[in-house]
Design brief:
Blueprint: H1 2-18, H2 23-46, H3 48-51, H4 61-79, H5 86-96, H6 104-117, H7 128-142, H8 151-161, H9 165-168, H10 174-189, H11 199-207, H12 211-226
Helix pairs in contact: 1-2, 1-4, 2-4, 4-6, 7-8, 7-10, 8-10, 10-11, 10-12
Protein name: Cyclin N-terminal domain-containing protein
Pfam family, one: Cyclin_N
Organism: Hibiscus sabdariffa (roselle)
């Protein structure tokens, strides 16, 4: 499942980019799918007779890819003034999902199943991206060195953390994770000779998290980012 999870996260991210989904749509979809839907599947599989959908009879990659697209669809309905259409999603699914052809009706059924797995709880107030964006704006407002930082790098770090279930657990504390990603981006993108801004004390001041706790999370993030990949 670990390798499958990585492939599914990459599929969701790639699909979001092809759909030109705004970052908020992408990260809400990742939150719904990777943080909540996938971990709930074991329970849902045991209860599949209650849900009664063929989509949960087996965890084929094609079915899970469909649910990844559904998470983007639901997120788009939450955030976009003009939500993505089922026609648009089906067209992308036809291009990207190789082992199964899904109809528009399948997409509608999959949306219902997805929401049933989540018990229709789709609150999105604790998405780490929200906190990261706010912190980044504040940081650039107080630190000249913030001009050297790239928000795209922050988002790239967040994408990588969704790859593994172990690192995705960091998202259970989204504000703390956002602060840690900001500090990690500072360490990675700002030249060491220009590290004059006290980034850890500033993060402690604006978030009330201990410097030691943020430092530990930064180490975890760096270990994941720079570990060898197959």
């Amino acid at each position: 499942m670990k390798r499958q999870r990585k492939d599914l996260v990459e599929f969701l991210i790639r699909s979001s980019h092809q759909l030109r989904a705004p970052p908020m749509v992408k990260y809400t979809a990742l939150s719904l799918f990777a943080e909540r839907f996938l971990p709930s599947l074991a329970t849902s599989m045991k209860q599949r007779n209650q849900i009664g959908s063929w989509l949960l009879r087996s965890m084929e990659e094609s079915n899970l890819q469909l649910f990844a697209l559904i998470s983007i669809w639901i997120s788009s309905k939450i955030h976009d003034s003009r939500a993505l259409s089922v026609k648009c999603l089906k067209s992308l699914g036809d291009d990207l999902i190789r082992d199964q052809h899904f109809t528009a009706k399948d997409f509608v059924e999959a949306e219902v199943v997805f929401l049933q797995v989540l018990n229709f709880e789709i609150g999105i107030s604790n998405v780490a991206f929200i906190f990261l964006e706010e912190l980044f704006i504040q940081f650039k407002g107080v630190a000249k060195v913030g001009e050297l930082m790239n928000f795209e790098a922050c988002m790239d770090l967040m994408d990588l953390l969704y790859e593994k279930e172990e690192t995705s657990l960091l998202f259970s504390s989204p504000c703390s994770l956002a602060a840690s990603i900001l500090v990690t981006s500072y360490v990675v993108t700002v030249p060491k000779q220009q590290w004059e801004f006290p980034v850890l004390p500033w993060v402690k001041f604006v978030t009330s998290y201990k410097e030691e706790d943020i430092g530990d999370k930064v180490k975890d993030i760096l270990m994941h980012v720079f570990e060898p990949r197959n």
